[in-house]
Amino acid sequence: MATPVLIPVEQYLSTSYDPDCDYIDGEVQERNRGERPHSLMQLALSAIFYSNRRAWKVLPMPEQRVQTSATRFRIPDVCLIAASDPADPIVHIPPILCVEIISSGQTLRHMQERTDDYLAMGVQQVWVLDPVRREAFIPSPSGVLQPSPDNLNVSGTPIELSWTEILREYDDLAAGR
């Protein structure tokens, strides 16, 4: 196994990556490029979040850099920040919600590390969605990912969606409707 090349955070922040990469303790880590199911789920969620942004007082941010600690930057597939949060280039205030969409080749174990970073930062809720297997996961109180009930929500906010409804929107997009 090759030893990763470590770079300072300043170099990461001043370099453009296409697609953008996570930065974990000095190592630039490529993210899994989304395939069609991933992209359609990301679009469906972004559309739902965008249409509810005023009522929920949020701003949906697809693929936004989020600094989860001094030496960690993650790029969630979609996150929701408070509409009143500062318009900084990088999110430093914990988002209300971070959503990760499983792509082919990714596992729940891989997602667990990402979820742990978000929760350690203080993100209120994390959803992990698998559009191919049609499964949704949320962290348990101990942080372990577990299957989600049909209702996906963020406690203490008006944010509440039915997984069935999200899948219906996803299916419509997949069918070209």
TrEMBL record:
Listed Pfam families: Uma2
Domain Putative restriction endonuclease: 11-142
InterPro entries according to UniProt: Nuclease_put_TT1808, Restrct_endonuc-II-like, Uma2
UniProt feature coiled coil, ranges: none
CDD domains cross-referenced by the UniProt entry: DUF820-like
Domain of life, per lineage: Bacteria
Protein name as annotated: Putative restriction endonuclease domain-containing protein
Organism of this sequence: Granulicella tundricola (strain ATCC BAA-1859 / DSM 23138 / MP5ACTX9)
